[in-house]
Design a protein that fits this description.
single chain, 308 residues, elongated, alpha/beta, six-stranded antiparallel beta sheet, 12 strands, four-stranded parallel beta sheet
Amino acid sequence: GSDLTVSVLPAASQKSQDSTYTVLATNEFNSARKRMSVLVKRGSDYLLLVKGADNVMLERAAQRNQATLEAHLKEFSEEGLRTLVIGYRSLSADEANSWLARYQEAQKATSDRDEKLANMAEMVEKSLELVGATAIEDKLQDGVPETIELIRKAGIKLWVLTGDKLETAKNIGFSTKVLTTDMDIQILDDELGTDLDSVEASWDCHSDDEEEEEEVLRGRGLLVTGKMLSDIWSTDYKKKQFQRVSTSCSVLIACRVSPLQKAELVEFIRKNVEPSPVTLAIGDGANDVPMIQAAQVGIGIAGREGRQ
């Protein structure tokens, strides 16, 4: 593999120390895995270095009690920052070499190669020691809040489908003026214990007062998590309920959703809402392609992420 030398300046030391790592294997990032990892060798030690979304990393931690880290992640997300969690795992020489042999076999596979490589990654990316998190600001381009405000004033219903955490998505919603402080904002999240029944009752989604409806809808916003959507898609009854709730507001933000769920939401609106609406999907990354293809009008924005 390729060698990489890292210079580290230890605390209370004037002299940096060099460490050389040999990269032996890379488990690539994709939007379904939400993480990537590299197996490296440093001297006689084998290390798996992993970075990924907080929910998938916390699931794979050796110690499930990560209260301090989770508190920091919550603080970052409430500021609208995008986070990644960093972790590692030490492997014995026998374990590393055994895994590498199977990984190389998967790389040579002529059928189901991607699935076999994903299985190899799943096999080794577990019992991780979490060492911290990064948080970066995803800056808005000029004019975004004003544009979104005009779209909402024109009566166009706006749905934001994102892989971000609930708190991050909510704060970005306010900074972009997708959400406003005077809105009645409801959240569908199993961790908060909220469900369709409570939202439907709060909004009286069975009301037939159409004159009042348009006025009221503009003052409502709904946030829903990908985990809750998976539960909703499991029964026809919940789908009908979600149809009533999601069409009883002017703004919906779906967070922690996969590329497939983004496309499913577009198809859901196209098939279930009467009169049949025209859907427009706009995205700037590879994970937005299924959503763009599912809409009647799809716009792909060419940018650094989209070209990767």
